[in-house]
């Protein structure tokens, strides 16, 4: 009897828990050609977009509460995936919808997410990403990719083509990329680049404060224009400075212009008060 009396309050508490604890699974599959475009808008959650070989788009959504609703529909050669807020007072946890989306590698992606995590992998056409504070991961994305975020960080790994990444306060990381054109711009975040530069490529790294660090192989070949107005430029590479600035390797300066090896690529690094550092791998 005592056990029953103890169990009754626990049962009442369990029944009183919000229904958001049990996620609702929503799944849709649409036929899709090579030129399909996916338009995606979400408030908060964990989101993954990956390519596959099927001529289809599959969307799996996990809705956490009744405070939001999901609209998944197909238009003419377009798939629309939108999350709509029904209760403006709902906290972030109740606004969450997690998504897994599979699409042909030739799909064009237009993605917007406020907060959470957004992962995109193995697409070779245009990808456009906008976030407020979501963390963005790109891997094997090979078309023209544009990422804009206010406070989120961006990591791009093994990407090719053209890549533009901009953030106000987030960190930008580029790992083993083979892009022909890269523009990385953040106001107060750090910028990290690890890997080589493509012959004939153009690379711009810009921030107002924070660190710009380029970790490069011994074979890297590029023309360098590095400037920090109130910060410093630190170089560990065998650079031949231009005539106005004959500065020995490893020294610290405000600006550095010169050639590494044959100058096969063009690299510009600009900061107002941050440190620009060139290191050997």
Could you describe the 3D structure shown?
Helix content is 5%, strand content 58%. The chain is mostly beta strands and 281 residues long. The protein folds into two domains: 23-115, no CATH class; 153-243 and 250-280, no CATH class. It has a 24-stranded mixed β-sheet that branches. Strand 4 and strand 5 form a beta hairpin. The model is unreliable at 1-20 and 245-249 (pLDDT under 50).
Order of helices and strands: HEEEEEEEEEEEEEEEEEEEEEEEE
**How much helix is in the residues?**
under 10%
Strand content: over 45%
How many domains make up the coordinates?
2
Radius of gyration using CA atoms only: 24 Å
Quote the average pLDDT: 90
Structural class: mainly beta
The major pleated sheet works out as: 24 strands, mixed
Assembly state: single chain
> Which residues sit in consecutive blocks of at least 5 with pLDDT less than 50?
1-20, 245-249
Count of β-strands: 24
Number of helices: 1
Distance between the termini: 71 Å
Form type: elongated
In short:
With 281 residues, the chain is mainly β. Helix content is 5%, strand content 58%.
Q: Secondary-structure blueprint of this entry?
A:
Layout: H1 2-16, E1 24-31, E2 37-51, E3 56-63, E4 68-75, E5 78-85, E6 97-103, E7 108-123, E8 127-131, E9 135-141, E10 144-149, E11 154-157, E12 160-167, E13 172-175, E14 178-186, E15 191-194, E16 202-207, E17 211-216, E18 222-228, E19 232-235, E20 239-241, E21 252-253, E22 255-260, E23 265-271, E24 275-280
Parallel strand pairs: 2-5, 2-6, 2-7, 7-8, 7-9, 8-10, 9-11, 10-12, 11-13, 12-14, 13-15, 14-16, 15-17, 16-23, 17-24, 18-23, 19-24
Antiparallel strand pairs: 1-3, 3-6, 4-5, 18-22, 19-21, 20-22
């Amino acid at each position: 009897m005592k056990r029953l009396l103890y169990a009754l309050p626990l049962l009442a508490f369990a029944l009183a828990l919000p229904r958001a604890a049990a996620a609702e699974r929503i799944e849709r599959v649409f036929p899709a050609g090579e030129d399909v475009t996916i338009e995606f808008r979400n408030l908060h959650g964990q989101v993954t977009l990956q390519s596959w070989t099927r001529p289809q788009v599959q969307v799996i959504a996990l809705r956490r509460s009744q405070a939001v609703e999901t609209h998944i529909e197909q238009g003419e050669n377009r798939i629309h995936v939108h999350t709509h807020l029904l209760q403006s007072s709902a906290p972030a946890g109740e606004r969450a919808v997690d998504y897994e989306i599979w699409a042909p590698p030739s799909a064009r992606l237009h993605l917007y997410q406020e907060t959470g995590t957004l992962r995109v992998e193995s697409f070779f056409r245009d990808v456009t990403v906008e976030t407020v504070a979501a963390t963005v991961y790109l891997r094997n994305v090979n078309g023209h990719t544009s990422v804009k975020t206010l406070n989120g960080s961006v990591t791009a790994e093994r990407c090719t083509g053209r890549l533009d990444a901009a953030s106000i306060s987030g960190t930008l990381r580029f790992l083993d990329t083979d892009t022909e054109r890269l523009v990385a711009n953040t106001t107060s975040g750090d910028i990290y680049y690890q890997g080589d530069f493509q012959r004939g490529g153009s690379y711009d790294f810009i921030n107002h404060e924070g660190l710009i660090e380029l970790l490069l192989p011994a074979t890297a070949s590029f023309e360098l224009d590095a400037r920090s107005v109130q910060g410093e430029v630190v170089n560990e590479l065998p650079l031949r400075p231009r005539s106005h600035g004959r500065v020995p390797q490893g020294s610290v300066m405000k600006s550095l212009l010169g050639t590494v090896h044959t100058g096969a690529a063009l690299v510009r690094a600009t900061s107002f008060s941050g440190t620009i550092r060139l290191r050997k791998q």
